[in-house]
Specification:
Number of helices: 4
Distance between the termini: 81 Å
Structural class: mainly alpha
Largest sheet: none
Helix content: 55-70%
Strand content: under 5%
Order of helices and strands: HHHH
Shape: rod-shaped
Radius of gyration: 54 Å
Length: 174
């Protein structure tokens, strides 16, 4: 199809159809039909221009969607960075709590290994027998008459003071 054909009708064929239309329709109706054909052609051209304009807008929006896709990619990158930071923070807190717990356990062992001195009632006489010097508390007890006979020694060692119970923290990773 070239420019000279319209709906598969060439120039000479179109002229023949116009002559036949003039014979059958008459000169008065031909003007009305020509006007109608002109208006219909203008409407078709307006619809065609609207379609082309809408197509251009859609293509421009597709270019705008590229910007939107870039923004979505950036948001996904930021989300992954935030997730990585959360994981690093969680592992750091786990390590810190493990170190703290290990320190508390060491402190607990040290506290259990250090026992307060026990003073027996006859520590003055035992101190001089063992070759060690008696302490001030035992001398003061002996002078005040607070010392009791040595026959009532207790065979059980004194119990060390108990440590406070561990504190439980809600939402603690450990």
């Amino acid at each position: 199809m070239g420019i000279d054909s319209f709906f598969g009708i060439g120039g000479p064929e179109f002229l023949f159809i116009l002559i036949l239309a003039g014979i059958f329709l008459g000169p008065g109706r031909i003007a009305k039909v020509a006007r109608w054909l002109g208006q219909t052609t203008a409407k078709l051209q307006a619809i065609s221009r609207g379609f082309v304009g809408q197509l251009k807008e859609e293509l421009d929006m597709a270019d705008g969607q590229e910007d939107l896709r870039d923004m979505l990619r950036e948001m996904q990158d930021l989300r992954s960075e935030v997730t990585n930071l959360q994981n690093q923070l969680g592992s750091t807190l786990k390590d810190a709590s493990a170190d703290t717990e290990a320190s508390f356990n060491e402190l607990k062992e040290l506290t259990n290994s250090i026992k307060p001195p026990t003073f027996e009632e006859n520590s003055i006489s035992n101190g001089s027998q063992n070759g060690s010097a008696p302490d001030e508390n035992s001398i003061a007890k002996a002078e005040n008459g607070a010392a009791k006979p040595a026959s009532k020694k207790s065979s059980e060692p004194p119990t060390p003071p108990s440590l406070p119970k561990p504190i439980t923290i809600e939402d603690d990773p450990e």
